[in-house]
């Protein structure tokens, strides 16, 4: 595969420079509205399903409803990210979110119908995400892309946490119906911003005559056949997917060392570590040093988890979780290399494929850790996650160095 020319080196970008780009501000606002609005909506729907049915299974299905359609959309629809103008695609995506949330707010739907509507939205979620990610290298040349992407990661984590925290308060004040109408309002605002604040620029690839699904499969195969691109995709998927399995063990681990309520502290420490890693690696470390630290940072995602074999107390466990997720900053360099490694005409699909594989891998990692927890103590499962992560990093060292 012919690589695009590397972006010019720019190591003096600051947050003010990134936010000085009008379209980036719009995309940033869209991302914040998307993550925050969806967090509030899913929490409200889960509570609503439980109140109506009394079934914990129904509530869990609603809460996890975005996973399967994301994978399907990534397999069949990703080529749209490079073949449809960004303004048109993002406007349509947020209008779909608005329409579905309004129907859900009206209420009265059985759980299967609710799941079907969520499936429809989730099917196009990877396309919307890929469209946004593909615009960043165009708007932020050189090292500005790394800073912009780190901002997206930090803000997504912050918006998700704030959305879930605010969701609990909103449910107490507005109830499930009122909270859903508020989520619909955020989707409507996102649609307006997409329509009137994103410039009407042509897509990087022609529409062509090939069907969307066939084109998506064709380009996915092309990307995965390229050894360099495949290596970068595996670097983006495996260390994170294997290490995140440890987070699926936080509740039983916290119960073993004190109280299950401590799981919240462990997850908060993990979120804080990820936030700090993206800030330090994206903002405070220059491009040359960042390149040299990619392999050590990737190894850091797994190394601290080995210490869980000794079942440390909650305070030490929080420090270990934060240290491990700090290493996730390595992914900024991997994404920068991926942008440079693929032609512009398929950049959106390449970034979308990276996100889709990461979503799938994290779900598989958590599921595998849960299955292993049937035979091993939670502390030992977390240590196994760390060992598996380090093994993946060693196997991929040529692509990470």
Notes on the protein architecture:
The protein is mostly helical and 401 residues long. It has 2 domains: 18-197, MFS general substrate transporter like domains (Growth Hormone, Chain: A); 226-400, Growth Hormone, Chain: A, CATH 1.20.1250. It is built from 18 helices and no strands. It has helices spanning 15-19, 22-53, 56-63, 67-76, 80-83, 86-106, 111-139, 144-197, 212-225, 227-244, 250-257, 263-284, 287-300, 314-326, 330-341, 347-372, 378-395, 397-400. Helix 6 (86-106) packs across helix 8 and helix 7 (111-139) crosses helix 8 (144-197). It is globular, with a radius of gyration of 21 Å. The model is unreliable at 2-11 (pLDDT under 50).
What can be said about this structure in brief?
With 401 residues, this protein is mainly alpha-helical. It has helices at residues 15-19, 22-53, 56-63, 67-76, 80-83, 86-106, 111-139, 144-197, 212-225, 227-244, 250-257, 263-284, 287-300, 314-326, 330-341, 347-372, 378-395, 397-400.
Percent of sequence in beta strands:
under 5%
Tally of structural domains: 2
Q: Total number of helical segments?
A: 18
Shape by Cα distribution: globular
How would you classify the helix and strand content by structural class?
Answer: mainly alpha
How confident is the prediction overall: mean pLDDT?
A: 88
């Amino acid at each position: 595969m012919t690589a695009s020319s590397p972006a010019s080196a720019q190591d003096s970008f600051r947050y003010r420079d990134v936010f000085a780009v009008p379209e980036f501000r719009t995309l940033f606002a869209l991302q914040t509205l998307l993550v925050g609005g969806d967090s509030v909506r899913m929490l409200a729907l889960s509570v609503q399903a439980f109140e109506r049915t009394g079934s914990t299974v129904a509530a869990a299905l609603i809460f996890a409803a975005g996973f399967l359609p994301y994978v399907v959309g990534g397999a069949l629809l990703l080529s749209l990210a490079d073949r449809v103008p960004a303004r048109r695609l993002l406007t349509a995506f947020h209008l779909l979110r608005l329409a579905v949330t309004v129907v859900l707010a009206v209420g009265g739907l059985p759980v299967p119908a609710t799941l079907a509507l969520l499936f429809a939205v989730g099917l196009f979620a990877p396309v919307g995400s890929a469209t946004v990610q593909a615009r960043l290298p165009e708007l932020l040349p050189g090292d500005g892309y790394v800073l912009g992407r780190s901002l997206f990661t930090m803000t997504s984590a912050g918006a998700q946490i704030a959305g879930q925290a605010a969701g609990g308060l909103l449910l107490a004040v507005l109830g499930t119906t009122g909270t859903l109408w508020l989520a619909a309002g955020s989707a409507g605002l996102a649609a307006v911003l997409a329509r009137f604040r994103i410039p009407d620029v042509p897509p990087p690839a022609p529409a062509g005559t090939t069907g969307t699904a066939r084109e998506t499969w064709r380009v996915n195969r092309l990307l995965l056949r390229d050894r360099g691109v495949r290596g970068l995709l595996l670097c983006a998927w495996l260390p994170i997917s294997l290490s995140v399995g440890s987070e699926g063990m936080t509740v039983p681990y916290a119960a073993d060392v004190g109280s299950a309520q401590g799981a919240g502290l462990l997850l908060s420490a993990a979120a804080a570590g990820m936030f700090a890693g993206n800030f330090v690696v994206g903002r405070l470390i220059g491009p040359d040093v960042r390149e040299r630290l990619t392999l050590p940072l990737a190894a850091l995602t797994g190394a601290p988890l080995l210490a869980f074999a000794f079942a440390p107390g909650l305070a030490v466990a929080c420090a270990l979780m934060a240290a491990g997720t700090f290493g996730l900053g390595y992914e900024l360099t991997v994404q920068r290399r991926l942008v440079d490694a693929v032609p512009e005409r398929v950049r959106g699909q390449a970034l979308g494929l990276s996100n889709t594989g990461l979503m799938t891998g994290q779900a598989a990692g958590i599921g595998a850790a849960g299955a292993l927890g049937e035979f091993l103590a939670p502390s030992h499962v977390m240590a196994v996650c760390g060992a598996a992560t380090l093994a993946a990093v060693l196997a991929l060292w040529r692509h990470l160095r």
